[in-house]
Amino acid sequence: MAEKTGNPTRPRLPDFRNPPVAEVALSLQFDPLHSLRTPHLGLLWEQYRESFPNSEDHAPLPTAVEWFGLPTSIDSAPQVELLNVPPLPRCWFVNERGSDLIQVQQDRFVFNWRKLKEEDLYPRYEYIRTEFAKELDVFLSFLSKENIGQLVPNQCEVTYVNQLLSGKDWKHPGQLDRLVTVWRNKYSNQFLKEPEDVRLSMRYLIRDGEKTVGRLHVNIEPRFSTIHKLPVVVITLTARGAPLTKDIEGAMRFFDIGRFWIVSAFASITTQEMHQNWERLDES
To answer: Nearest to residue 28, comparing CAs of 263, 255, 257?
Structure first.
């Protein structure tokens, strides 16, 4: 998760030479474009097809809204279904390598980068942000040309997925205390020993100065890598909140804040031993 920031009002971001980043996504949610129908998605693909020659259909992502001042169990806005109108699929437009993809549905536009091979290098946040903005411009132009409607942003998401492969420092998912600082394998007596595995879920308020602007979701869970045939621990961090202003510029500003919180939090919850493995560069 090697990241840097040019914002002089914030401290320098943690910087790793070999971060365990496996996927990054920037997602813009907006008021549903009910005039966007299935035939439009085929026309839209023509706008992307030269750079994203492959396509897939998936079920649409549910609406997700961060509420504040309400019980913390409330994560999502109520779902509104139009009678007799089936949901529009979520279309993926994928580049030749499969590493970059665009996702489009009636109320979302997403750009992902994915690590597919061990030798793939994380291209950094700046690349993903630039590509998101570029491909979003294509989508906005398409909406205007087809008279589909105006895009009104309501939520933004930044997601980083990190895969920590087992090796010399840890071998079993129950040894999570060797990976993260927020779990300690300590007990009040000798009855229990090392757990078989551990799953953690945490949430933090995201603040910009004195203002709460979003929420950071951290999920840690064990998995098994079919490629390496070894256990992995996956740490997923998602920053979600409303655009700082109700336009694309406000959404991009939230992306930057969300990325800052994710990278800073990742360094905070992982151990110094792991930082050495990833060759942390911002500390002497």
So the answer is: 255
CA distance 37 to 35: 6
3-state secondary structure of 203: strand
Residues in the chain: 284
Q: Using alpha carbons, list the distances in angstroms from residue 23 to 38, 43, 89, 128.
A: 28, 28, 22, 11
Smallest Cα–Cα separation from 19: which of 39, 3, 38? 3
The sign of the CA dihedral 41, 49, 156, 150 is negative
Q: Which two tokens stand for residue 16?
A: 């790793």
User: What's the pLDDT at 225?
Assistant: 83
> At a CB cut-off of 8 Å and minimum separation 6, what does 237 contact?
159, 160, 162, 216, 217, 218, 219, 262, 265, 266
Contacts of 6 (CB under 8 A, 6+ apart): none
List the strands of the sheet with 153-165, edge to edge.
54-58, 90-94, 100-105, 108-114, 21-30, 153-165, 230-241, 211-225, 200-208
The predicted pLDDT at position 77 comes to: 45
Q: Tell me the pTM.
A: 0.90
- Among residues 201, 243, 200, 209, the alpha carbon closest in space to that of 66 is found at 243
